[in-house]
């Protein structure tokens, strides 16, 4: 492949970073979009900065991997993915597919293992691999054909020289270093009595953790020798846990990773639905969905009981006064000519599920018009298909 380069994105890590970097962002209906927005912004920057010809993104599927089978405490201290983030992950993956970027994930394996395998396959195909991730575990893959770029580090890519400057050892010995020092992030226990400095000395002399164990008898310091002999099983297990699996059975071809033209219509639909106007404006105007003008039907207060769908549907309430109040269902919009007993009954009925933006403003607006409510019951947990002008393009204007 000559000078071809494959860019591999550690997508799960970027999603977490986006989720916590942008604390508050949601649609008018209350659907969280902070991780979606942050991830797309980072993805677009990667594409702009590197202009990759070959690209893939890699995800973790679940916390349960082959490493937990070997050591139940592996990453046991980590919290489960927050609900607010997990709910956005399917949308992020839909966006990646709309961009035409191959997406890799595999039950029982981490994204790191997928990246390790794809990096090896890229090398075998005669290409270079550049990994986009802040995960130090991926540093072990670095060699003359593989480098790691930390999006948070402005000092450039990590090559073998820079990795050795950071860790004191060649990249391939990072799992051996972790075998002695442990890794608090992954809940891998260190070996008490062996510091990082001492571990580097041992590995520099013996060449690997395995050689340190097999050659422990030649270590002059009795206490250190005994520590290694008594913890040999844990040292071996630690190295196994820290080592990435680059032998996964993954379909791979350079052609399949070639960057394709995005499906701009699909992207426009998603960006419109989730109110991501900053991204929508960069798409061709022809790809953007046309707004659908729907005329609101005026009904009398009495007739509203006939058009209200009842308890089996959800009402979207919009407006700031009695004159602008509109009721929306999945397929129609209607207004009450004059709010009366029947409309108040619907608004006050907790059994009729309703959502809306800025409940307090709606209630205050009605009160200013002399329409006091005993209660205005909204279901704040319902979201998804609900009628929302900013999301669907429907207009509540006459």
Short description:
The chain has 398 residues and is α/β, with parallel strands linked by helices. It is built from 18 helices and ten strands.
Task: Please provide a written account of the structure.
Helix 1 (11-21) crosses helix 2 (34-50), helix 5 runs antiparallel to helix 13 and helix 8 crosses helix 12. The chain has 18 helices and 10 strands. A hairpin with a 7-residue loop joins strand 7 and strand 8 (326-328). The strands form 2 sheets. It has a 5-stranded parallel sheet with strand order 3-2-1-4-5. A 5-stranded mixed sheet has the order 6-9-8-7-10, with no helix packed on it. The protein has helices at residues 11-21, 34-50, 66-70, 83-86, 89-98, 111-124, 160-167, 174-181, 196-206, 209-214, 222-230, 232-242, 264-273, 277-280, 304-307, 341-348, 359-368, 389-392, and strands at 5-10, 54-58, 103-104, 128-132, 146-149, 297-299, 314-318, 326-328, 333-336, 353-356. It is 39% helix and 10% strand. Residues 379-398 have low confidence and may be disordered. The protein has 398 residues and is an alpha/beta fold.
Properties at a glance:
single chain, 398 residues, alpha/beta, five-stranded parallel β-sheet, five-stranded mixed β-sheet, 10 strands, 39% helix, disordered C terminus
Fraction in beta strands: 5-15%
SS elements, strand count = 10
Order of helices and strands: EHHEHHHEHEEHHHHHHHHEHEEEHEHH
Measured between the Cα atoms of the first and last residue, the distance is 60 Å
Task: Report the sheet with the most strands, covering strand number, pairing sense and barrel closure.
Answer: 5 strands, parallel
Mean pLDDT, rounded to whole units? Answer: 84
């Amino acid at each position: 492949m000559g000078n071809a380069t494959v860019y591999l994105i550690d997508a799960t890590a970027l999603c977490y970073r986006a989720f916590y970097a942008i604390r508050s962002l949601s649609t008018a209906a209350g659907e969280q979009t902070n991780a979606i927005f942050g991830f797309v912004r980072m993805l677009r920057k990667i594409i702009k900065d590197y202009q990759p010809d070959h690209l893939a993104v890699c995800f973790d599927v679940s916390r349960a991997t082959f490493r937990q089978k070997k050591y139940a405490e592996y990453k046991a201290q980590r919290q489960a993915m927050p609900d607010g983030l997990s709910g956005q992950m399917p949308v992020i993956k839909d966006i990646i597919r709309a961009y035409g970027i191959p997406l890799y994930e595999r039950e029982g394996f981490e994204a790191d293992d997928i990246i390790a395998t794809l990096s090896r396959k890229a090398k075998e195909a005669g290409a270079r691999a550049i990994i986009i991730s802040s995960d130090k575990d991926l540093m072990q893959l670095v060699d003359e054909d593989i480098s790691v770029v930390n999006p948070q580090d402005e000092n450039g890519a990590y090559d073998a020289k820079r990795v050795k400057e950071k860790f004191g050892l060649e990249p391939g010995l990072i799992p051996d270093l972790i075998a002695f020092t442990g890794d608090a992030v992954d809940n891998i226990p260190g070996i008490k009595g062996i510091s990082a400095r001492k571990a580097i000395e041992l590995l520099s002399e013996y060449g690997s953790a395995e050689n340190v164990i097999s050659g422990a008898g030649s270590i002059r310091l009795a206490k250190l020798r005994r520590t290694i002999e008594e913890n040999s099983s844990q040292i071996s297990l630690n190295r196994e846990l820290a080592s990435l699996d680059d032998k996964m059975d993954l379909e791979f071809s350079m052609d399949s990773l070639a960057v394709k033209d995005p499906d701009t219509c699909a992207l426009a639909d998603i960006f419109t639905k989730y109110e991501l106007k900053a991204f929508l404006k960069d798409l061709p105007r022809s790809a953007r969905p046309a707004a659908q003008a729907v005329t609101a039907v005026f009904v009398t207060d009495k007739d509203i009981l006939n058009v209200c769908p009842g308890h089996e549907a959800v009402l979207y309430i919009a407006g700031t006064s009695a004159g602008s109040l509109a009721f929306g269902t999945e397929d129609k919009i209607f207004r009450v000519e004059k709010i009366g007993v029947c409309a108040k009954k619907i608004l006050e009925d907790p059994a009729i599920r309703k959502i809306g933006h800025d409940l307090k403003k709606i209630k205050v607006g009605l009160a200013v018009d002399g329409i006091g409510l005993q209660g205005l019951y909204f279901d704040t947990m319902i979201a998804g298909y609900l009628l929302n002008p900013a999301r669907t393009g429907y207009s509540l204007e006459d």
